[in-house]
Write a structure and sequence with these properties.
Blueprint (H helix, E strand, L loop, with lengths): L1 E10 L5 H16 L3 E3 L25 E6 L10 E9 L5 E9 L1 E2 L5 E2 L3 E2 L12 E11 L3 E7 L5 H8 L3 E7 L5 E11 L5 E6 L4 E4 L19 E8 L2 E12 L8 E4 L6 E4 L20 E6 L2
Antiparallel strand pairs: 1-9, 2-3, 3-4, 4-5, 5-8, 6-7, 9-10, 10-11, 11-12, 12-13, 13-14, 15-16, 16-19, 17-18, 18-19
């Protein structure tokens, strides 16, 4: 298990070839340090030579790379992650990362098998072009992998940008928290700034916002006294525990504050990152509040 924090220069308006290369290099260096290995697909961008002309507003034509989660289950339960660098926002003036997942590729840049595209974007004007941002990672071999961009923003449209360039991935696990080889879970953010939970059950992907405030899910009070809600996913017509993230009350915890929770049988340390990822409390079809934030495993 490992965590890391670093500060990188990030140009979200792709003002030069050098800045695009810097963005991609920082992102992919971090990604490949947390369990992801680049595939051999043709047509992938080279972060050392890519130019702004390779960037478009179409995920099918813009610069991209494909990686797979490189663990013991790759041979039998592969998960591939495609990261496409898309021009979006007002007047296509901002560079965002579109995340897609599948169980294979065709060798030429197309994901195959059950697939899902997580990110969506809007016509928002996001934030200033060049600044230093914080890049956090958390990783446990064969279990989970998370990469988070964090800008010190209070404006929700600015927060939207950093959230949509961040993700958390985990294998589904058994009661002993060993990967069960069945499925996977991917958290990402869409243009409404709320975190979606994408669940792969071994056959298909399904999306939900309603993963922490399910019926009967009462808050757990850790030693620090904060309320924490466990995360669940549905498979085989029953709720299953996702132990690597919890939801906390936003007003109770400062950014980067840590707490210990035992969501199942094993205690874990979690951190409320400085990431603008409010999670929904609703029981219907629309996110309705920003009172609750995820806290990610941080060990």
């Amino acid at each position: 298990m490992s965590t890391s924090t670093q500060y990188v220069s990030w140009d979200n308006q792709f003002t030069s070839n050098a800045s695009v290369r810097s963005n991609m290099s920082a992102f992919y260096t971090a990604l490949e340090s947390i369990g992801w290995t680049q595939s051999a697909d043709t047509g992938q961008a080279d972060q050392t030579t890519v130019t702004t002309s390779a960037l478009t507003n179409n995920t099918s034509t813009t610069a991209y790379q494909i990686h797979y989660f490189d663990d013991d289950l790759h041979a039998t339960s592969p998960i591939y992650l495609k990261t496409a660098w898309v021009k979006e926002g007002y007047a296509d003036a901002y560079l965002l990362i579109n995340f897609s997942l599948g169980t294979g590729t065709n060798g030429a840049g197309t994901l195959t098998g059950p697939t899902v595209s997580v990110s969506s974007v809007s016509g928002t004007t996001f934030s200033p072009a060049v600044k230093y941002v914080r890049l956090d990672t958390t990783y446990s071999e064969g279990k989970y992998s998370g990469l988070f961009l964090n800008g010190p923003e209070t404006n929700t449209s600015h927060a939207e940008y950093y959230a949509m360039c961040s993700f958390f991935f985990a294998r589904t696990v058994d009661l002993s928290e060993d990967a069960d080889g069945v499925g996977a879970i991917f958290y990402g953010s869409k243009s409404n700034r709320y975190v979606t939970q994408e669940v792969f059950n071994g056959t298909a992907w399904a999306e939900t916002y309603n993963y922490s405030f399910v019926t009967g899910n009462r808050p757990y009070s850790p030693p620090e006294g904060f309320a924490a809600f466990r995360h669940w996913y549905i498979a085989e017509n029953k709720y299953n525990l996702m132990p690597y993230m919890v939801t906390v009350m936003n007003a109770e915890m400062a950014l980067d504050q840590e707490l210990t929770v035992t969501p199942g049988t094993i205690p874990h340390r979690y951190r409320k990152l400085g990431l603008p990822w409010p999670s929904a409390t609703y029981q219907g079809s629309t996110p309705s509040t920003t009172l609750h934030y995820p806290a990610v495993i941080w060990e």
